[in-house]
UniProtKB/TrEMBL annotation:
UniProt keywords, alphabetically: Coiled coil, DNA-binding, Transcription, Transcription regulation
GO molecular function, one term: DNA binding
UniProt xrefs under PROSITE patterns: HTH_CROC1 (PS50943)
SUPFAM superfamilies from the UniProt entry: lambda repressor-like DNA-binding domains
Pfam families assigned: HTH_3 (PF01381)
Residue intervals of the HTH cro/C1-type domain: 5-59
Protein name: Helix-turn-helix domain protein
Coiled coil, from the record: 76-145
Top-rank lineage group of the source organism: Bacteria
InterPro entries: Cro/C1-type_HTH, Lambda_DNA-bd_dom_sf
CDD domains linked to this entry: HTH_XRE (cd00093)
Organism phylogeny: Bacteria, Pseudomonadati, Calditrichota, Calditrichia, Calditrichales
Organism the protein comes from: Caldithrix abyssi DSM 13497
Length: 150
């Protein structure tokens, strides 16, 4: 496979680092493959074949053509089916956006309620703190009166 990888890279006219980047591996990994120190993973082999239309059988065994024959162009019916699928996906996404907007609006309303509740609680706390200070003052006065009488 080492020879075939070298042949492929030369045939593609790519620098080794560019080939490595294109298949999402480090130049060091590619170098190890080309030196026979390690072998590409099955995922790496599949990426090479998918990206460069390479015949996996040729890459692994040397048998067959280096490149696969191009697929025939899609038929009108296949285009129509793909278009219909995209239209359905668009409608699904529109509905999801509508649902998310409604959820966001509900959350905003709840946040406003929470803010109002928080403000009411803060006002009650201030009121209780003021009342507490007044009671402390009254207790001090009563203590002083009791101490004077005693």
């Amino acid at each position: 496979m080492v020879d075939r990888l070298n042949i492929l890279i030369k045939k593609l006219g790519l620098a080794k680092k560019d080939f490595a980047k294109s298949i999402n591996v480090s130049p060091g990994n590619l170098s190890d493959w080309l030196k026979g120190k390690s072998e590409p993973s099955s995922k790496a082999l599949i990426r090479i074949c998918e990206i460069y239309n390479v015949n996996l059988n040729w890459l692994l065994t040397g048998q067959g053509n280096m490149f696969l024959q191009p697929s025939p162009p899609p038929t009108v019916n296949e285009h129509a089916q793909a278009y219909q699928a995209k239209e359905q996906e668009i409608e699904r996404l529109k509905q999801e956006i509508t649902n998310l907007k409604a959820e966001l609006k509900k959350m905003d309303q709840e946040e406003e309620k929470d803010k109002a509740h928080l403000q009411a609680l803060q006002a009650k706390i201030r009121e209780l703190e003021l009342e507490n200070r007044e009671l402390i003052g009254q207790i001090k006065i009563l203590k002083e009166l009791l101490l004077k009488k005693a």
